[in-house]
Design brief:
Oligomer: single chain
Number of strands: 3
Mean pLDDT: 96
Distance between the termini: 20 Å
Strand content: 25-35%
Structural class: alpha+beta
Radius of gyration: 11 Å
Largest sheet: 3 strands, antiparallel
Helix content: 25-40%
Shape: globular
Order of helices and strands: EHEEH
Low-confidence stretches: none
Number of helices: 2
Length: 69
């Protein structure tokens, strides 16, 4: 299992977090998605067949592109 926490500048409210949770959470292999509009941090846990590339692509397509450290 892998875990990644990223900053998402476009997150402004709980609705934004819920959109990310529902869309990213629907990807096969994604175990959990959690986040906070106050910190703009989203934490995602996943295992095979999900990978960071597909998760990042989904978030970018939703206009919630994660900042890469």
């Amino acid at each position: 299992m892998e875990t990644k926490t990223v900053k998402v500048p476009n997150v402004g409210c709980n609705g934004c977090v819920n959109t990310i949770k529902s869309e990213v959470g629907a990807l096969p292999g994604v175990i959990s998605v959690d986040g906070s509009p106050e910190t703009k941090l989203i934490t995602i846990q996943w295992e095979h067949p999900a990978d960071w590339s597909s998760i990042r692509h989904t978030m970018t397509a939703l206009d919630y592109a994660p900042e890469e450290a």
